Amino acid sequence: MTTTRRDLLAGALTAAGTALTPALAQGAGVPHDHDHDHEHDHQAVPSDPALRVKALESLLVAKGLVDRAALDALVDTYEHKVGPRNGARVVARAWVDPAYRQRLLAEPDAALAELGYGGLQGEHMVVVENTPMVHNLVVCTLCSCYPWPVLGLPPVWYKSAAYRSRSVIDPRGVLREFGLVLADEVEVRVWDSTAELRYLVLPERPSGTDHLSEEALAAMVTRDAMIGVAKVAMPDSGKRV
Amino acid sequence: MNGVHDLGGMQDMGPVSPEVNEPVFHAPWEGRAYALTRAMGAWRLWNLDATRFQRELMPPADYFRLSYYERWIAGLQELMLKHKLVTVMELESGQPDPGAAMRTPALTAENVPTLIGKGVPARREVPVAARFRVGQSVRARNINPVGHTRLPRYARGKTGTVDRDHGVFVFPDSNAHFHGEHPQHVYSVRFEARALWGEQVSSVDSVYVDLWDSYLEPA
After folding, report:
1. Which residue in the set A152, A178, A192 is minimally distant from B8, CB to CB?
2. B183 has which bridge partners?
3. What interhelical angle do A68-76 and A49-62 show, nearest 10?
């Protein structure tokens, strides 16, 4: 049987494995770790993406196209080094240092670089500030653009069709699903990341936090608040953060 | 291309479902899929715009059925085939073809920090005139290109105001097809929510869309 390219891709990437072609089922580099002979039909080979990605990695390593240590380093970076704690540090600094806040809003790339943040998918940053009368919300309707250096990789809901579709037409409805109800007179500004600018929301500093250190403030700042689907709440206020 | 990826304004996709204490990757293979995409991008045989366009070409039913990183792997496989880094036979067998050349990886662990730290800037420091100025009223053109574009359907034909000029950037509509960078100004254009969606939405809300010079006309 001839496997067309389309068949291959549709089959290789069908989550439930419903479209597996016989040719693919025999192949895709699925490890043959069972200990019988190979005369039988392999249609039952699972289409588990874990096996398929493992097979692809093995192929690319065998061809000298990728270096396993580089893959390890990439995974480690986003699992352990780059994430929303970076953004929280930026927000806390802006709250305690008015001059830094000004720089962050006016020259975000330079201000973020002061704290060591920048680079991949955050090369060109924009920081938008929430106030009592303005609430900012960030989305990417066309794909999944997100400011990696300060927030890490995006959560599944940010990449979901539900969020991408409705944030622009019904932002208040989306915010309600996150437990955030805004007064009618508050202006909602939705930022659709259609180009290579990446957006960070500077949330409002909660009242009653004057006594807190910069570190304590940073600990209060959530990823969701920096996307704009939540406000920053006092830890003991019982509100959703 | 008027594809399923252009989701802005659809209303039947269900509620947003945040996950508590969500891990960065839900399974090790997701991390590997992410890393493979980055590592293969380091060959610089394609660019970010081409990568996005490749994912947009996925058949609509697959686009919605597959998970995010499955879509990434699908796009990566297609790009590698198109650029002859792998063959269909290799993807089927999982083994290099007999006599296939052995390469030296483009991305090594040592230069991962540089890749992540420097990124791949899309801004170009070239003198290109801006056709529009901050405060000007503009209309997003009513165009329906069959190739890659970053002008979402919901903004086409709609009138807004230039809020800021972000400077000069690579133009994705040409770059995705390897037809050159054609750098031009990108503006943040503010559309009143009602200009986009009518009277049913708030009169104080707005949507800001980053749009290239070519997408706009005076209004």
Report:
1. A192
2. none
3. 130
